[in-house]
Write a structure and sequence with these properties.
Layout lengths: L5 H8 L1 H13 L11 H13 L9 H17 L7 H19 L4 H25 L7 H7 L19 H8 L3 H10 L12 H21 L3 H11 L6 H20 L20 H8 L1 H17 L10 H8 L17 H34 L3 H20 L13 H25 L6
Helix pairs in contact: 1-3, 2-3, 2-5, 4-16, 5-18, 6-8, 6-10, 6-18, 8-10, 9-10, 9-17, 11-17, 14-16, 16-17, 16-18, 17-18
Length: about 450
């Protein structure tokens, strides 16, 4: 392309800021404002005029294209297109953030910017959760703490009136917790990648972020979150001292099981209906393995009946009970999703959507393998390992719960993928500069 106007280039450089300004429109969409969603393709057009390409090339491009096609088909087929609008808009914003952050990666500094936004967003979610969550009461010693927390943000737009769901919060926080733990361990005796005068501030930020996120994760009392975190930390086992730390954590877990008389493992499947005003029978029914199995069976029936299109993003709470009445669960129970992220993708978007969703995970594994093979320094490997451990923890948690595609908590998954893709882009570019050969050779 020819010489780009400085004004046009500056506007394109501010793309991340424009997206953040537009975020409320995507997170809390209204039908009357839906034409404003055209702002997203306009931003991509601006990038094309400034750079000559619409999106930066990443290993996840094919998966994302297939996912968007599945969304388009499901939105055409769903009986509740306006009901799906919030999830569709949330997914579009998440994908836009993914490509914007990768586009900014021209060096390792760009990678750290992606990681910083990822951590800041998670801290924001944790802070909001402390004053806006409908806390559960699984463990008395934690309930004594959550019972004293103010509930200032209940009834936020797009959430349940009683507050945020603690299990969904736990699944989102899992993505960052191992990463912060790895960074604290790696930089315990070496300077952080900032100038010397900012070292104390950066170190304090790391510690405060970790404490805020880890504390909130514990307070969710999500047993699925605890188990997911434990499995995610297995990715850190090659380091001897971290192995000792994990062993100590296992010992603490066993002590907690004894002190709580086995409550930590009893009833692993958490209920998402925890409003004290809801009939107790409903909460107990979904809290049981039998209740979850019935939800999963209905999800499989939905997939069998709508294999190519799905029923639309976020519409299971309407379609499920209408087509497949509950047998053991109360007839008026409100179940927002199928409590398994793989089944949720297939229910919402059909089998093509499930293939695309699985391809995101497989593509992430391939990026991590590339980084691990060619990373020139331990810092890049530390970042890679921390991000992957968070993804593993989130995947395991998602086998019994889900932050469905397009949900407000689900956008953190895309920030995690953006951090990994940014690291992959910078690491591979550095490798090719040093060796003059392609990674695939």
């Amino acid at each position: 392309m020819g010489r780009v106007s400085p004004v046009l280039q500056r506007l394109a450089d501010w793309e991340l800021g424009w997206l953040l300004l537009l975020a409320p429109l995507f997170f809390f969409p209204r039908v009357s404002l839906s034409p404003l969603l055209i702002a997203l393709p306009l931003l991509w057009g601006l990038r094309w005029l400034a750079t000559g390409h619409i999106i930066p090339r990443t290993p996840l491009d094919g998966s994302i294209l297939l996912l968007l096609l599945a969304v388009l088909v499901s939105q055409w087929a769903t009986p509740y297109p306006t009901f799906s609008l919030a999830k569709v808009a949330g997914l579009l914003l998440s994908i836009a953030l993914y490509y914007t952050l990768v586009e900014r990666t021209r060096s390792q500094q760009g990678v750290w910017q992606s990681v910083l936004l990822f951590v800041l967003a998670t801290c924001g979610l944790a802070a909001i959760s402390l004053v806006g969550t409908n806390w559960t009461g699984k463990f008395l010693w934690l309930s004594a703490i959550t019972g004293r927390l103010p509930r200032l943000l209940q009834g936020m737009p797009g959430t349940l009136p009683e507050g945020l769901n603690p299990n969904s919060i736990a699944g989102a926080l899992l993505l960052t917790t191992p990463l912060l733990l790895m960074l604290l361990w790696h930089f315990r005796d070496k300077p952080l990648p900032v100038s010397s005068q900012w070292q104390p501030v950066a170190r304090a930020f790391l510690w405060l972020s970790f404490l805020l996120i880890a504390m909130t994760l514990i307070l969710t009392q999500s047993r699925g979150g605890y188990i997911g975190l434990g499995v995610g930390l297995l990715a850190l086992l090659p380091r001897r001292r971290l192995t000792m730390l994990l062993g100590g954590g296992t010992l603490v877990l066993l002590v907690l099981v004894i002190l709580t008389e086995g409550q930590l493992l009893q009833g692993y499947f958490d209920s998402t209906i925890e409003d004290p005003e809801v009939v107790e029978e409903q909460a107990q029914a979904l809290d049981s393995l039998q209740g979850r199995q019935e939800v999963w069976q209905r999800a499989i029936s939905t997939i069998e009946d709508f294999p190519l299109t799905g029923v639309g993003m976020g519409t299971f709470r309407r379609v499920g009970p209408a087509l497949y009445p509950w047998v053991t669960l109360p007839a008026d129970i409100d179940i927002g999703h199928v409590h398994n992220h793989l089944l949720a993708a297939a229910v919402d978007l059909g089998l093509p959507g499930l293939v695309a969703y699985l391809a995101l995970w497989l593509g992430s594994a391939a990026m991590a393998w590339d980084i691990w093979r060619v990373a020139p320094a331990s810092t890049e490997r530390t970042l890679c390992l921390g991000i992957v451990a968070g993804l593993i923890a989130h995947f395991v948690w998602g086998m019994a719960d889900a932050n469905v595609l397009g949900s407000k908590g689900g956008f953190l998954l895309w920030l995690s993928l953006a951090s990994l893709a940014s690291l992959h882009r910078a690491t591979i570019a550095d490798f090719q500069t040093r060796t003059g050969e392609a990674v695939g050779e």
